[in-house]
Design goal:
The protein has 15 helices and 17 strands. It is α/β, with parallel strands linked by helices. The strands form three sheets. The protein has an eight-stranded parallel beta barrel, surrounded by six helices.
């Protein structure tokens, strides 16, 4: 079937052929075939990368080698002229091709995957799409059974994301998670084609990033957390290593310094940020809204300039997040001055600003990203007006994608101030319908968030993330007419085999037949 003949939607009457096609997030076009290809020995050939992502073939081999019954090797791409299956090996060809992906798509992350008797071919206009194709292939592999080798069904997939911003925000300020833990989070996010890791690096409880201009911050305000632990912070070398790891998986890191509220970790170090000149006490509780900066103090602007410039210099990506949420003890005029100043400082440092939704109450520069989160009943005219004036909106409704919310009322982890968030709650919502009047074209994407006041360990973190993160990933990636809760339940139950195989904790929700 040529590309112009591809159906807009998979014919669900082909259920028998579709049973083993189990992909999260659901692709745009899936055409299952009749046979299978044995993939016990995969040989990865990268063609046309021209040094753009020299690690990609090795990473693809690593991802696929983790499957039951599958080994994968990377052949030197410079030695490959016409890749082909060799003996008992199956060729996986990764090829840059601008014609790949669904008809009409212009997304740089689009891809096509073809599995047939000749082997496996993944094509994409850019390396990110090739990794997406490999993640799709990973989910298609059927583990070896009695007398049957590992295999993958014949299939043609043409796919592209709905939104360019598909993220996960992780709070390392309340409970600190270090470099190795964050690398593991990146790997899981990339497995479901998420492409943003947003790090909440500062809050009342801790300052978790080294700032060369203000070394006392991490030295004096990172020694504890809400879980009773010893805390910690990311050195610039750690942050560099995390960004490198994420970049190899085409995930960009968006760091956040939260101001002008949530700032006790800074005022604990610098008394000159307080009107009375007295440093505040260290705080390891979970209340919010009690701390703030004061705009007119002489120390305020130099402090903000230092920390945002330091962070921007350490950040590879385009964006730096300025926070701006839950500033409960500040007049609107002063708050607006803070938003304007922080936007300006971030832009002067060469980055683009992102802020929580409250910032839309202040005049924003066109192009600033605003992150909607607060689902309590309120007038959101200000957010709609900001979007119509040129702000871009990231959808993070707390009652859908805050993955620190409890699954059920008796669940031992998490909180419930935004409500209970079961797997179906995280899956069954439409971004364009959340904020009445918000122009659909202003939505930049979807981002899940996990706050860590009551998440003390890495196992607890993953238990809260999975399976719900995969549900949010499908909301962010998949066209709404391709989403189906009952089919997702089937697919996520199959995907749980991968979590069990790798020992990744997850919550076996009663909503899914595991």
């Amino acid at each position: 079937m040529c590309r112009s003949q591809k159906p807009n939607r998979f014919d669900q009457t082909q259920t028998t052929r579709y049973l083993m096609v189990s992909i999260i997030p659901q692709p745009l076009h899936v055409e299952p075939g009749e046979g299978h290809v044995p993939v016990g020995a995969l040989e990865v050939h990268a063609v046309g990368l021209d040094g753009a992502a020299p690690w990609l073939a090795d990473l693809a081999a690593s991802v696929l080698s983790g499957l039951d019954g599958v080994t994968a090797t990377h052949d030197d791409p410079a030695a490959v002229a016409v890749p082909a299956a060799d003996g008992e090996r199956t060729a996986l060809v990764l090829r840059v091709d601008g014609a790949a992906g669904p008809e009409g798509s212009t997304s740089p992350e689009r891809y096509s995957l073809v599995v047939d008797a000749a082997g496996v071919t993944a094509t994409a206009p850019e390396p990110a799409g090739l990794l997406h194709a490999v993640q799709t292939l990973r989910q298609l592999v059927v583990a070896p059974g009695e007398g049957a080798p590992a295999r993958v069904p014949h299939v043609v997939v043409h796919d592209a994301p709905r939104y360019p911003w598909r993220g996960l925000s992780v709070d390392v300020a309340r409970t600190f998670f270090g470099l190795d833990a964050l690398r593991a989070v990146v790997d899981v996010a990339a497995a479901y084609k998420l492409n943003v890791l947003h790090l909440h690096l500062t809050d009342d409880q801790g300052w978790r990033i080294e700032s060369p201009s203000r070394p006392e911050l991490a030295k004096l305000s990172s020694g504890g957390d809400t879980s009773g632990g010893t805390g910690g912070h990311l050195s610039l070398a750690d942050f560099r290593a995390l960004q490198d790891h994420a970049a190899e998986r085409f995930v960009r890191v968006v760091p956040e310094i939260d101001v002008p509220g949530h700032i006790n970790a800074a005022t604990h170090v610098y008394g000159d940020l307080m009107p009375d000149g007295v440093p505040t006490d260290a705080y390891h509780g979970i209340e919010v809204g009690f701390s703030r900066l004061t705009f007119d103090l002489p120390a305020t602007e130099p402090f903000l300039r230092d920390v945002f410039t330091d962070l921007a210099r350490a950040t590879d990506g385009e964006h730096v997040h300025l926070g701006g949420d839950e500033v409960l003890k500040m007049e609107p005029a002063e708050y607006a001055r803070f938003v304007e100043l922080c936007e300006r400082l971030i832009l002067e440092a060469g980055k683009k600003p992102v802020a929580w939704q409250e910032a839309a109450k202040a005049p924003l520069r066109p192009g600033t990203l605003v992150q909607y989160w607060d689902t309590h009943p309120m007038d959101l005219t200000y957010l709609v007006d900001a979007a119509r004036a040129g702000a871009r909106v990231i959808m993070s409704p707390a009652n859908r994608v805050y993955l620190d919310m409890k699954y059920t009322a008796d669940f031992p982890l998490g909180q419930e101030w935004a409500g209970l968030v079961e797997v179906r709650d995280a899956y069954d919502w439409e971004p364009e319908q959340v904020v009445p009047g918000l122009p659909a074209e202003s939505i930049e994407g979807v981002e899940a968030a996990v706050w860590t006041e009551r998440i003390p360990t890495l196992d607890a973190l993953f238990t809260m993330l999975l399976p719900r993160l995969s549900a949010v990933a499908e909301v962010a990636w998949t066209a709404p007419d391709r989403k189906d809760w009952d089919d997702y339940r089937r697919r996520v139950a199959r995907e749980a085999h991968a979590w069990r195989r790798t020992g990744t904790p997850f919550h076996p929700s009663v909503q899914v037949d595991w």
